Amino acid sequence: MPKITKIISEKNFVFLTALLANRVDLAAAAEEGGSDAIIVSAGASDFGANRFGDFELEEEGIRSVASTVSVPVGLYLGDTIHIEAEEWERVVEAGIDFLIMFAHQMPLLALADTRVSKLAAVGAGYVIEQVRALSKDPNIDALVAAITPSQAVAQNMSALDLGTLRLLVSLSEKPVLDLVQKIFEPKFLPILRQTGCRGVILNSLSLGSSIESIKLVLAEYRSKIFEGVV
Question: Would the pLDDT of 230 be above 60?
Fold first, then answer.
């Protein structure tokens, strides 16, 4: 069983960190700050403020991260329309525990591979019936709510954002993780948790880009999870 599947099933709430770059020092900082898993990226990415090269270009950094940290490492593949079987084998062999892709881009080659866990991202254009159907897929282990339109990224999180997240949670038969794409202070984490989501994916928008800020801010988020609503 992939490690991330076990972690999500056993923990009440999980913290995943999407790296700004596929660098060992950033990954180590996230692990030290208490991240339950690390996300590296290849291709255009909505999981950080950076654009990444294709897997071949990023492979060395991805392998270095996966071989260094002790927490599970997942790969976000952005804008991947087609992937050959040979390239997919290299992805798996790089030490990837789980894959994150938007559902409309996830190839069946990856979906059917039981060696890695699949977290299917759902975007702002998905309809209710699609979300419900995806959550019933036995090959998908969790959904990722990536529902902020590009023009609204980095704005303040609103009550409507939480309402939409709550709707996704109610529709899904699988755990839902929230990709935080808006400004969201650690003190409001208990309110977000009330939606029923099972965790958050934090990137440089929330954590900053330095090693110290990643460690300190992530630790602050974790410290707020069981506090009362402010």
Answer: no
How do the domains of the chain map onto residue ranges?
3-224
How far, in Å, CA of 207 to CA of 219, rounded?
Answer: 10
Alpha carbon distance, N-terminus to C-terminus of the chain: 38
Interhelix angle 159-171/128-135, rounded to 10 degrees, is 50
| SS3 at position 3 | helix
Q: What angle do CA 142, 157, 34 make, to 5 degrees?
A: 55
Look up residue 229 and give its DSSP letter: P
Q: What is the mean pLDDT of residues 69-85?
A: 87
Q: What is the DSSP string of 8-58?
A: HHH-SSEEEEE-SSS-HHHHHHHHHHT-SEEEEEESS-SSSSS----HHHH
Q: What is the pLDDT of residues 159-194, one digit of tens each?
A: 999 999 999 999 999 999 999 999 889 999 999 999
Residue 229 pLDDT class (50, 70, 90 cuts): very low
Distance (Å, whole) CA 62 – CA 51:
15
Region of residue 32 (left: phi > 0; alpha: psi -120 to 50; beta: else): alpha
The domain 3-224 is classified under which CATH number: 3.40.50.1580, 3.30.360.10, 3.20.20.70, 3.40.50.261? 3.20.20.70
Distance between CA 93 and CA 66 in Å, rounded? 10
- Measuring CA to CA, how many Å separate 55 from each of 42, 89, 100? 5, 12, 14
